[in-house]
Amino acid sequence: MSSINVSRHPLVAHKISLLRDQSSSPKLVRELIHELAYLLMYEVTANLDLAECGERRSPLATYQGVEVKPRIGLVPVLRSGLGLVNAALELIPTARTLHMGIYREETSLQPVEYYNKLPRETNVDECIILDPMLATGGTAIATANILKDWGAKKITYMCICASQSGLDAFVKDHPDVSVFVGVIDHQLNSKGYVLPGIGDTGDRLFNTADH
């Protein structure tokens, strides 16, 4: 089965509590999501393979250098996934960024693909999907499907908040994908939003809410 890794870091819990607060400004929301991306990416990347890259010299002696072995592809799901990208790139500056645009149709709650910036040929060894929220699971499932059809061999999914039912649906369709999540909530409302959740992350990041 998929490996579902729920963060136990106290700073993750603290920052998610702040992020949930409806009074948090767009500036604070952006800062919190950036910081949470750092913390969660630390866990996502803990088991990356290393390769030796030749002898180097410290100020005092020689040593054998190492570097991250796999070519990493970061896959932010537009538009809210953009809030996670900069932190991930600061940690893995050699990663490729492969944008995917998928939105959830309001009536059917089904995912609709509208943008795909994957190159023609597979040019990464591992893909990390970046999406702050996993609600019904439809968008996450669709993104993983697209990546597998493209030829991705190893995929990891990272999100800040997920519903239990959405996770269950994702695991059922993609048992080979590891999931890293900050917190799991246990309710969805009639519009497919997680309760208590973190709200519409795209609107909160980019200050585009109607109210």
Model description:
It contains six helices and 13 strands. With 211 residues, the chain is of the alpha/beta class. It has a single domain, classed as Rossmann fold (3-Layer(aba) Sandwich). The strands form three sheets. Strands 1, 4, 5, 6, 7, 8, 9, 10 and 11 form a nine-stranded mixed β-sheet that branches. A two-stranded antiparallel sheet has the order 2-3. Strands 12-13 form a two-stranded antiparallel ribbon. Helix 1 (10-20) packs antiparallel against helix 2 and helix 2 (26-44) crosses helix 3 (82-91). The radius of gyration is 18 Å and the shape is globular. It starts with a strand and ends in a 5-residue tail after the last helix. The relative contact order is 0.18. The mean pLDDT is 93. Pathway: Pyrimidine metabolism; UMP biosynthesis via salvage pathway; UMP from uracil: step 1/1. Belongs to the UPRTase family. It holds the Pfam family UPRTase.
